[in-house]
From TrEMBL, chains A, B, C:
This is UDP-3-O-acylglucosamine N-acyltransferase. GO terms for cellular component: membrane. GO terms for biological process: lipid A biosynthetic process. Keywords: Acyltransferase, Coiled coil, Lipid A biosynthesis, Lipid biosynthesis, Lipid metabolism, Repeat, Transferase. The gene is lpxD. It comes from Thiobaca trueperi. Homotrimer. The keyword Ribosomal protein does not apply. PANTHER family: UDP-3-O-ACYLGLUCOSAMINE N-ACYLTRANSFERASE, UDP-3-O-ACYLGLUCOSAMINE N-ACYLTRANSFERASE 1, MITOCHONDRIAL-RELATED.
Length: 350, 350, 350
């Protein structure tokens, strides 16, 4: 079925006759042209809707009327919009197996696999069916890639690491770098051999230039459904539970374990050997230095419960004035003391 | 004109006869050899000038005399120095079109373009005249590169993204990675399709291993003349105004908009959907969680006006002693209360 | 000598007859199979030892008895374990010189050098004997690599930079990017030419996607034995002393100088033109804005002595309650004042 027919069907499923609409794309209200589909969620967007050139705008049931626009009222306009938008996802950038790819004869390449130009596939690699390996990407000896993965360009996956099914790795991601471990031998830092692996579960996405190090021994494990943003660091022997989210530039130090459904915001640091419970939420730039209970919301460096941290910040904002008040109180107390002494002297005189 | 003649001319333009100077390079005072040009700005550098082996040292009009050295007095020694230093910038590392580059026949490569070994140029790419594409760099389908750009090695620019004229992209920079957007569907994070693009203006520089994500819809836009340092994250749908500076390891979350001439220092985090006004200055490691007015100077997490933040930090430093003082005051107050009660009892007795 | 014989000898050196043990690997207690060697350091691990399937477990002299396991008591079980574990380090991933590598005829490649597929070696490069250059890695004109280095895949080392002997560079590391220097010329940021180099000493390790910029003039210098983790930024003209450690996502701004044996923890920012003395320890996420004396331990933003910072944080946690106490004191003082005034009035009446 062609994409335009799919769009047609999707809109008809919303009860719309689309004979008069020729939707060729999806866009924002501001940037839409006369063949674009858009959505608006909040009544406050009515002016933007009025200004938009969009062909058709999905809105909620109670969105205000906007004369001169074609609104389609649906229960959940954002979700409906993105369902249709998904039809516009372009095909993966890499197609077929490029003749310049260096594929070792002992690699096992599945059906319908695409491998980009100048990709390098080592001995003992397995690539599951339907996966795409980007140009310039390196797969080290013994690497296993599941099915239907999209591995971007210039990715490096080092020896013996495993990637699950339906994973997406963005450009420059690095899996299986050595853990950062050294012992001082009296004259220099001796390297602790890094003999483990990194194992990435199914349905994981890893952002541009992010790093997941191999374990010293055993496995650095990223659970099923985990989403990792750009420039994130996951150190050796870390365990990340299922469906956990690591936002950009966050870092998890060695041997720490995050539960399921944790949300780690941007630029968070989690120290080594820390346990973070299921469903915990770590606020932006927090520094976690000890265990976090399940469902807890933490903030600050060192990280503490977010309510406490906000109360402290509010109190801190009052501190400069407080210093003046204390000084004033001190003077008052001293005056009181003098006055009291005089009174006492008077009484004893009496 | 040869470089040595250019140097000759530049020095003569400062009124210097250069017959006795054979300047072959530029350097620091400490590391200069007998054929290097240097500069010194402050009188405090006189000892370093005396120790230097430099052939010639540009100094300000009021720099002290330093016997045994050749000083050239000019109005702005740093600027004059770097004008001459610019003559020593080596040619770009990539020349010609390397036979190992994988260039799609439907790519449009301008005049005098250089393409490095193992670079990969996809269908529909346009590269403007005089641009250099580094070895191992990937340009996805439909990418447009302006004229006179320097794209370093191992850069990844994904489908449909645009780079203006005279841009410099350093190694490992990644343009057009998917925005980080998901919706929870009850059993997992469903990917929000990332259908927009990233558009980089003219005269932009982007540092090593920095990332600019494509928009979910529409455009992630980097304005003309913006300078981005290494390891910086710019998320989906961000707008960065003209001549704004993003220092190393800073991160801008989704849909935030920075004005013109903003300075974002190192390791700053700017939350999503935040507006930062023209000319604002965000101090190192700050965490911006709400809008920042134009020209404001902010510091801390959460970010607040820098004067307030510094006053709070100064007050915080006094807090431990303050706790003792409060305790002491409390005791004094209690003693006063007892004494007062005794007095009151005495008076009522009287 | 085969690896199994080496293991045999190593265990015999500990006084163990190994006839009954066929050690084929090393692992953690939890993940070990029946042919793995493990170690345990603390008595608290006795239960994990009991559960482990390991063939043999190195423990300290005073480790408790654990029935049903084979314990080997040694003085320093961790060190002994990793000495044996080192026998299991696999060979480097890159072997031989791949025909797809683009090696300039004017490059000087030493004996026993391995160069991966699609690596790009420019004119004037020198690679010392026994070094391995990963697939997709770029060495710019005039780059010098010492002997016995392991340069990973997709690394970029730009013109004229130098790497010492026995260095390890992990995937995506970038050496010699331009320093981040600009001057405002009234209409835009003019690039300050970056004419220096980066020079990396012997025995240095640099993590995945980390960046060391070239100097504006002169040299950005990484001392012998320095260990740099992933995603670290080292700016132009920085000097890092011998055996200093930079943990993941830390950043050192331009022209700062770190002494020998400094430890910079994760996500630390060190401002430009700062001196950090030998043996200083900078705690995670600290922001160093002024010089740090040798051996000092610093924490917080702005960084201050760790004891002071912790005292301040403890005091801050008490601040919200303190505000209430101050308010209460204020009321008490005012009451005292009234009572005192009444007394004084009574006395003057008397």
């Amino acid at each position: 079925m062609s994409r335009s027919m799919q769009i047609h069907e999707a809109l008809q499923a919303f009860g719309l006759s689309t004979d008069d609409h020729d939707i060729l794309g999806v866009s924002t209200l501001e940037q839409a042209g006369p063949h674009d589909l858009c959505f608006a969620e909040e009544a406050g967007q009515a002016a933007a809707v009025a200004r938009s050139q969009a062909a058709l705008i999905l809105v909620g049931e109670d969105f205000p009327e906007v004369p001169g626009t074609t609104l389609l009222r649906v229960a959940d306009p954002r979700d409906r919009f993105f369902e249709i938008a998904a039809l516009f996802i372009p095909a993966p950038e890499t197609e077929g197996i490029h003749p310049s790819a260096a594929i070792h004869p002992e690699a096992d390449i599945g059906a319908d696999v695409a491998i980009g130009a100048c990709a390098v596939i080592s001995a003992g690699v397995t690539v599951g069916s339907g996966s795409h390996i980007g140009p310039g990407t390196y797969l080290g000896p013994g690497v296993r890639i599941g099915s239907d993965c999209l591995i971007g360009p210039n990715v490096s996956i080092l020896r013996d690491c495993e990637i699950g099914d339906r994973c997406i790795l963005h450009p420059g991601a690095t899996i299986g770098g050595d853990g950062f471990g050294f012992r001082w031998d009296g004259s220099g830092h001796r390297k602790v051999p890094q003999l483990g692996r990194a194992v990435i579960g199914d349905d994981v996405e890893i952002g541009c230039n992010s790093c997941v190090d191999r374990a010293t021994l055993g496995i650095t494990r990223i659970g099923q459904g985990v989403k990792i943003d750009n420039l994130v660091q996951v150190a050796h022997n870390v365990t990340v539970g299922r469906h956990t989210i690591l936002v950009s530039q966050s870092g998890i130090a060695g041997s720490s374990a995050l539960g399921d459904g944790v949300v780690v915001a941007g630029q968070v640091a989690i120290s080594d050997h820390v346990q973070v419970g299921d469903g915990a939420r770590i606020g932006g730039q927090a520094g976690v230095v000890k265990d976090v209970p399940p469902q807890a919301a933490m903030f600050g460096t060192p990280a503490r419960p977010v309510k406490q941290a906000l109360r402290e910040h509010a109190a801190l904002a009052r501190l400069p004035d407080l210093l003046k008040q204390i000084k004033h109180q001190q003077e008052t107390i001293e005056r009181l003391e003098s006055r009291l002494s005089r009174l006492e002297a008077g009484q004893s005189d009496a």
